[in-house]
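Task: complex structure prediction.
Instruction: return structure tokens for all chains below.
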Amino acid sequence: MNRSLIIQSDNTVMLLTSDPMFDSVKNELIKFSEIKMSPDTMYVYEITALSIWNAIAIGIEKDYIINMLNDNSIHPVPASVVNYISKWYNSYGVVVLEAHNDKHFFLRVSEANLRIKLKENSVISTMLCEEVKDGFLIQPNHRGEIKSVLMKNNVSVNDKIGYSAGNELSFKIRSVHLTKNFDIEIRYYQEESCSAVFSAGNGVVVLPCGSGKTMVGIRFAEMCQTTTLIVTNSAASVKQWKQSLLDFTDLTEDQISCYDANNKTFAPVTICTYHMLAYKSKGEFIHFNRFIQQSWGALILDEVHLMPANMFRIVASFQATKRLALTATFVREDGREKDIFTLIGPKRYDKPWKDLEAQGYIASVNLKELRVPLTKKDKKSYLEAKNYQDKLDIAVMSENKVEAIRFLLAKHKGEKILIIGQFVDQLEVISGMLNIPVVHGQNSDKEREFYYDKMRSDNINELIASSIANAALDIPGISVVIQISFLGGSRNEEAQRVGRATRPKDCPAYFYTLVSKDTMEEAQNFNRQQFLTGEGYKYEIQEMAMVA
Amino acid sequence: MESLTIMPNFIIMAEVSNRNYMDNLYGILRCYCEVIANVEHIDSYRITPESFWKGMNSVPDVDFIQLLKDNTKMEIPKNVITDLDNFKSKFGIITLIGDDCLKVKNEDILTEIKNNTKLNEMIYEYEDDLIFFEGDINTIQKILQNDLSCPVKFRASKVKSYILDDGLNHCLVKAVSPDRALKLLYGKHNTINEENLRSLMNYKKADITDEVINDFMKYLITNINKHFVCMIQVSDDANRKAVKY
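Output:
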């Protein structure tokens, strides 16, 4: 038998991409391990407690995993790995959450030692109402929180209470797109990811930008056939979701509501922003309190990496609802990924960017870092700057970046180009100099949508945008993205911005980052590239010759 | 036989079973990289600018980039080579001399240092391309790396400036220049006493015993070739005069 895995005692599993069995082994591995890195030479996976519990949730037996590892491992599988898998397998089911009566749920804990530990835990003990035989009674509103705390303590909870059915909503995905008239086909990974979450009842799906995550959400809602709440990160995205639902399903206008400042009505499918849901007035979540009174059977959280931290408590209130979270980059700069897992559900599906690129589902993007020298004047100011922030301001606003943009616009004349940056002042200046429209947070939704539509309908080929265009902006056909300034070393932002160019298209796509040469922007950009290089992307670094 | 796989995210995978790796590369990789995992089959490392510069200080006689090229199984990603060359080009611009002096080779960097508010709180004197500072070199290094993306090169013989009173009215001063030696004595330290001596020699609590002084003398003799040493005669009333450079 051909053996292709290197399994190590730190629970990492490595798979060489050159192996003839690569594809089949990879598909097996993802069922019980998490992919950590997928550069072009070697994929690296990690077996974790969570990945084992996920495997159990989809019915995979312990022996199946151990046999698969034994059959494919180049070296004997370390005993510690087998023990680790057994340990987490055996821990599953020790704690079970069950319905009890109208006022309480029953937290069944079958191990006496664990019951003592829970009572001694200062946080958990506050949620235990009463000790009964083999467990504790808890209040229903602690359902999410107690699972979250227990998971942080490496205790899995098998939640058997089930989900609210919501109100029935009958609809189906069209066979032909309503406005563009093409045949609608659910891609294999969209179907797989939906099924994984639907069968488990909750979970996170990680798919690259441009791979059709909205379609995953729509398919999930179709599977659920119930009243559905969709929460996303911007007003533009709310509108895009509505349009997609109309285009891809037989839902009608009156069945979809965009809940916003002007419209406070609910419909069988309601879409709103995180900001709206988490909005507080006089200490009260005024909108959320209205939402929670509705009967929702499904909750879809779009771009979940952007979910504000104050949404965590709100999400905990939706434990009775089937939940799907969508993201392209499960990297939160605040490090709270684990909170998402515990409150929404674990990562159920993850597909490397390069896999989908190779299969033609997302565009191939050439990544280039262009190092632009400062002008003499800028350089003098940079050298004489008093502190980090002053230096950064000069590096970001470098005059020569404008010349570099001119050069790239000429090089890609006729292509659809998005110029994206961090600082509104800089964007406004460049907009004036190059006579290209600009959109940012200070524009009204209507103004922004006006320019997005112009790009979509090919009335303009060039647009400047602030970070509001980082995510959930669907403008197909963008083949060139020029990043002129950015938020420090954010890996997430980098991946999202590259994602503006990954929508499938006929021509190759380019993503340029303009970095002022010999400034701290170089170091920041080094950090930014770490997520995508881990996904197998390669950056080409070039120095631009400029007139000083 | 090649044993390394270098990935575009600056991660290096090394085959433990490869003799060349264990015999010749293991120690060097630990100096130049952060260790992610040392396990039974594949060791993994991550290169960062800081780890690379730390390696250049620890094992300066190794051409790390060439070593990677010689031992990689597949071509090194271009972005990795470009960035490593860039990190390397910055090393040596700023060199620590003695315990309180930085020599700066590049005019632009010198200008940046002179204008940096945080650094200037720690710098008390400039002398051509030399900068004299008070405080912890690690703090200064952190600011230099963060604000200027420029590391500090430590000399191979990481010696401090020393003043030694031999108890016979002579002081041996080790410093980067004769002027500096005198300044150390006349400017910074008004008197040479046991307390100063202990502080300068880093013997904060221990008594200065004959044994310590002998060890120190031996140390100086083996390390003086790159530094100026001056002998100071100390008069009874603590007025000192340089008698020999």
